Amino acid sequence: MNLTQELYIRTILFRFVMENSNTVSIPLPKGMILTKGTTEQPKEQVTTYQSMIGSLMYLVTSTRPDLAYTILFLPQFSSCPTEVDIKPAKHVFRYVNRTRNLDQFYPYPRINAINVYVDADFASCHDTRRFTSGYIVLFNNSCISWLSKKQASGAKSTTEAEFVAMSYGTCHIRWLLQGLADLRLHVPMALHADNTGSNFLAVNPQINVPTKHIAVDYFITREALEENLFVLLKV
């Protein structure tokens, strides 16, 4: 089965006069730095900018996990968009124009397994210096869930930021297990992370000085591993 929103993409491209735009291969320009505007700066068309972001949000919630981070990042400037903010929004539409044929493919399941991949960036928000976490869930190698989220608290290192990202993935695994239990299904699960330090922190029962300030609820990954809810694998 294939899920696609090509007709919807054509509609929003026509709505914002971007159907004949030059296409690009990535959702956001490389090395782009944006900060929140001020009331003193000249505003662009606020309603238009908000409508563009809202149209893209519907894509993300349905079939386009590749835009998850983009739609977390750009709405931060919706209240006071400037000329600098409009350009990356149009850049996303140019990317969508190029990838309008992308779809979600769900084959007949043969291998019953769920893999959750988590990651975090390095202080990408230039206003708050917060890290951004993300995860993607694959069932039989088909994407069924995804998330990009700015972390609620600050982190002092990439290890801590990755550990927080692992906690988000763990929460989603617990939610999946509840749903599968209602269906009386048992599916093996694995959490994949690429940071050696955070992987060690998840399996090491010792809490030392550099890590004891991390909120207690972020240690749910360690508790879930002790309950054998999933296995932790290094990417």
Chain-wise SSE layout:
Layout: E1 2-3, H1 6-15, H2 46-62, H3 68-73, H4 83-98, E2 104-105, E3 114-120, E4 132-139, E5 142-150, H5 158-182, E6 189-193, H6 196-203, H7 220-226, E7 231-234
Parallel strand pairs: 3-6, 6-7
Antiparallel strand pairs: 1-2, 3-4, 4-5
Protein architecture, described:
By secondary structure, the protein is an alpha/beta fold. The protein folds into two domains: 2-98, no CATH class; 106-234, Ribonuclease H-like superfamily/Ribonuclease H (Nucleotidyltransferase, domain 5, 2-Layer Sandwich), CATH 3.30.420.10. 38% of the residues lie in helices and 16% in strands. The protein is built from seven helices and seven strands; from the N terminus they run E-H-H-H-H-E-E-E-E-H-E-H-H-E. It has helices spanning 6-15, 46-62, 68-73, 83-98, 158-182, 196-203, 220-226, and strands at 2-3, 104-105, 114-120, 132-139, 142-150, 189-193, 231-234. Strands 5-4-3-6-7 form a five-stranded mixed β-sheet. A two-stranded antiparallel sheet has the order 1-2. The longest helix is centred in the C-terminal third of the chain and has 25 residues, at 158-182. The chain is globular, with a radius of gyration of 20 Å. The protein starts with a strand and ends with a strand. The relative contact order is 0.13.
